[in-house]
């Protein structure tokens, strides 16, 4: 049973036993369930002791990811958040400054980890759709005086989540990483949904991330694995990152069970991301025809829409949809509907009608 977490407590709330079943889950691509074929692959996985270095399936996943990203080495971690934390700890020292977009996950969705644990400060740049330009980045360069925090890392989210799943163009990425290199900064890509970007843009992952020192991919978003993310970089970077993985308790044991799910996702769930993007476009088209709804044309699988013009609040819409077994999320005053592995094309018109009714009620 899926449910929206309560804001009143830090502990996730269990859904009531009589909660209506969720039939159309547009809440997040994190809610995909492993398919029967993925579970089969997990069951068949050859395993060992990952932190001891002898789990063959984890090695296979890391080799495949390093090759896919065009980097020397890779590391399996339990979550994307841990990839960001480990990467920032590896690139930076306490008091260093990380430059990122003001809507980025590291600023808003990691529980204050960078104040609590990594000790970096984050400068949030403005810009439409979660992106900024080379001029914006140049304007953020600080003088090297003893007063200014030392700037150390450029962090880019591909796709930009709160930016509406927007895809940073390759030319912009290359310009930005070029500036970072000039400044002597490291570069890190939060690639939670990187393959949504590469599939949408028709660009190979290695080409898209060529300018970045480190990059990670989440297997628990549209790729549909139950857990796991892989961080990639130079051999030297990954070697240094292992110290932080171990310190944070991110070293696993028979991790191959989960790595097998990720390998299965690489083999079977990448090309199909295009279907999620087509579903998202259809959804956006349908929503755009509802009076009072303002929707942005999606680049990938995230559809953000504004319902202020309808007079219905995001919470009321969520509650009304929940009664029909449909789940959407609220993010920054807007509604987010996310397409993924468990959302079929047939569900799109049904979701549009339900949203139309819920907004008219
Ligand atoms: C989901 C997400 C993360 C964190 O990944 P988890 O696996 O949930 O820890 C980081 N960045 C972005 C952009 C995300 O969407």
How does this model look, in words?
- It is a single chain.
- The protein starts with 23 loop residues before the first strand and ends with a helix.
- α7 links the parallel β5 (151-157) and β6 (186-191).
- The longest helix is centred in the C-terminal third of the chain and has 16 residues, at 273-288.
- The chain has 361 residues and is an alpha/beta fold.
- The protein is globular, with a radius of gyration of 21 Å.
- The model has no long low-confidence stretch (mean pLDDT 95).
- The strands form three sheets. Strands 2-8-7-6-5-3-4 form a seven-stranded mixed sheet, with helices on both faces. A four-stranded antiparallel sheet has the order 9-10-13-12, with helices on one face. The protein has a two-stranded parallel ribbon with strand order 1-11.
- It has helices at residues 36-44, 56-69, 80-91, 105-108, 113-118, 134-139, 170-183, 194-201, 205-208, 235-247, 256-268, 273-288, 314-323, 347-360, and strands spanning 24-25, 73-77, 97-101, 121-125, 151-157, 186-191, 214-218, 229-233, 294-295, 302-306, 326-327, 329-331, 334-338.
- α2 (56-69) packs parallel to α11 (256-268), α3 crosses α10 and α12 packs parallel to α14 (347-360).
- The protein has two domains: 36-268, 3-Layer(aba) Sandwich (Aspartate Aminotransferase, domain 2); 272-360, Aspartate Aminotransferase, domain 1, CATH 3.90.1150.
- The protein contains 14 helices and 13 strands.
- The structure holds pyridoxal-5'-phosphate.
- Pyridoxal-5'-phosphate (PLP) binds at residues 79-81, 105, 157, 161, 190, 192, 218, 220, 229.
């Amino acid at each position: 049973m899926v449910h929206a977490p309560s804001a009143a407590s830090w502990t996730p709330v269990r859904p009531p036993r009589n909660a209506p079943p969720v039939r159309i889950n547009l809440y997040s691509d994190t809610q995909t369930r492993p398919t029967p074929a993925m579970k089969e692959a997990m069951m068949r996985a050859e395993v060992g002791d990952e932190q001891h270095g002898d789990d063959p399936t984890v090695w296979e996943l890391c080799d495949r990811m390093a090759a896919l990203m065009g980097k020397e080495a890779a590391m399996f971690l339990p979550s994307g958040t841990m990839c960001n934390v480990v990467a920032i700890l590896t690139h930076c020292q306490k008091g260093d400054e990380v430059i990122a977009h003001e809507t980025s996950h590291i600023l808003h969705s990691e529980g204050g980890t960078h104040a609590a644990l990594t000790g970096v400060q984050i400068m949030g740049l403005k810009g439409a759709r979660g992106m900024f330009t080379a001029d914006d980045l140049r304007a953020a360069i600080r003088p090297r005086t003893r007063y200014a925090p030392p700037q150390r890392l450029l962090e880019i989210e591909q796709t930009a989540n709160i930016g509406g799943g927007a895809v940073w163009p390759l030319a912009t990425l290359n310009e930005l990483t070029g500036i970072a290199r000039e400044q002597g900064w490291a570069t890190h890509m939060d690639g939670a949904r990187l393959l949504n970007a590469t599939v949408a843009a028709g660009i190979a992952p290695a080409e898209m991330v060529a300018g970045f020192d480190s990059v990670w991919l989440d297997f628990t978003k549209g790729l549909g694995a139950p857990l796991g993310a892989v961080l990639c970089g130079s051999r030297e970077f990954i070697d240094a990152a292992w110290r932080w993985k171990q310190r944070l308790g991110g070293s696993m044991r028979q991790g191959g069970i989960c790595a097998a799910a990720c390998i299965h996702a690489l083999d079977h769930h990448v090309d199909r991301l295009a279907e999620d993007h087509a579903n998202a476009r259809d959804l956006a088209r349908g929503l755009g025809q509802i009076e009072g709804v303002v929707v942005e044309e999606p680049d990938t699988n995230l559809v953000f829409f504004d319902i202020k013009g309808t007079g219905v609040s995001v919470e009321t819409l969520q509650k009304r949809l929940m009664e029909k077994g449909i789940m959407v999320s609220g993010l920054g005053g807007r509604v987010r509907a996310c397409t993924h592995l468990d959302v079929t094309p047939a569900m799109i018109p049904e979701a549009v009608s339900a949203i139309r009714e819920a907004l008219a009620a």
